[in-house]
């Protein structure tokens, strides 16, 4: 019984000290500016397949039916038939990696390639421009 009491006491003391955190507190907030992960070849295929399926079956409202039919079709495709979707997925992955590099540079505080001037240069120009009466051009 002493073992049970010590555990209960330790849990109480932890909760009083605020050591335990809820799942919401543990989970980091998502950045809305972070680029989305690229779709796999299957999901690139499904973009086209959904359009075709809806044209053939306009009355079907079941997402599960479309997904199941798409999965079956994907499995029946040969490597050659899958190749354009794989190529498109690779292209999107490369674009995602470039976007992530730019995003990570921005987070790290690196200079943007888009901006011509750094913040210090902009501040220096503001200071010089505001004192127009003090400066005389000879």
Shape: extended
Major sheet details? none
What is the H/E string?
HHHHHH
How much strand content do the residues show? Answer: under 5%
What is shown here, in short?
The chain has six helices and no strands.
What would you say this structure looks like, in words?
The protein is mostly helical and 138 residues long. It is built from 6 helices and no strands. The longest helix is centred in the C-terminal third of the chain and has 30 residues, at 79-108. The protein is extended. Mean pLDDT is 78; it is low at 115-120.
List the helices and strands and how they pair.
Blueprint lengths: L1 H16 L5 H4 L14 H16 L6 H14 L2 H30 L10 H12 L8
Helix pairs in contact: 3-4, 3-5
Which tags fit this structure?
138 residues, mainly alpha, 6 helices, extended
